[in-house]
């Protein structure tokens, strides 16, 4: 029952016992990205996503190319980085189902390309009312961190209506960092989408991860921890 579900106040949990993704599936994902990069090089604008573009949030701001992150304290004004999502095939879906979780509604591979941009930030956001299983294949740059925030006048665990209720924060002065981590590669990590989070130090590189989005209220019973 979604209404009675209270998400826990964790930021992330590493799950080292969950199976590694088989190499042939990793290679399949990397091929999709490489083909997308070729496609991107042929486009006149560097900001058009060649892969599937999500545009489902209620406010249209999370994905807006006009979004600006600001800080009066540091004088920062910058556009955030965006990422590109690629769908995997049925073999991937079957593997996830058999090895990782029986309950998910969305998964794939994502690349955050910071070669084309001056910005060092992936913008602060919630994921909507969901938990995300995250598996980093390439950190992009070794200094890149995943950051969790408490926003001024907001609860740490946000009250989100559904999995599409993505909330954002653009003023970094309103955010207090409560946790910051260099996520490990080739290890599943459970991220709490109810807590505002983003990515810092997106120095030149291609950060690549697999993701599995799950309805939060059923996660505890669905992950296939041995
Ligand atoms: Fe997120």
Record keyword descriptors for this entry.
226 residues; Jelly Rolls; four-stranded antiparallel β-sheet; 15% helix
Number of H/I helices? 3
Mean pLDDT: 84
Structural class: alpha+beta
Biggest sheet architecture? 6 strands, antiparallel
**What is the end-to-end distance?**
26 Å
Structure ligands: fe (ii) ion
**How helical, in percent, are the residues?**
10-25%
Largest sheet, spatial ordering of strands: 1-10-7-12-5-4
SSE order, one letter for each helix or strand = EHEEEHEEEEEEEEH
- Write the CATH architecture name: Sandwich
CATH fold group: Jelly Rolls
Number of strands: 12
Q: What's the shape?
A: globular
CATH class: Mainly Beta
Uncertain segments of ≥5 residues (pLDDT<50)? 43-59
Question: What would you say this structure looks like, in words?
Answer:
By secondary structure, this protein is α+β, with helices and mostly antiparallel strands. The chain has a single domain (10-41, 49-222), classed as Sandwich (Jelly Rolls). It is 15% helix and 31% strand. The protein has helices at residues 23-41, 90-99, 219-222; strands spanning 12-15, 69-71, 76-78, 83-86, 106-113, 122-125, 130-139, 145-151, 175-181, 188-192, 197-200, 206-215. It has a six-stranded antiparallel sheet, with helices on one face. A four-stranded antiparallel sheet has the order 6-11-8-9, with no helix packed on it. A hairpin with a 4-residue loop joins β2 and β3 (76-78). It is globular and about 50 Å long. Residues 43-59 have low confidence and may be disordered. Fe (ii) ion binds next to loops.
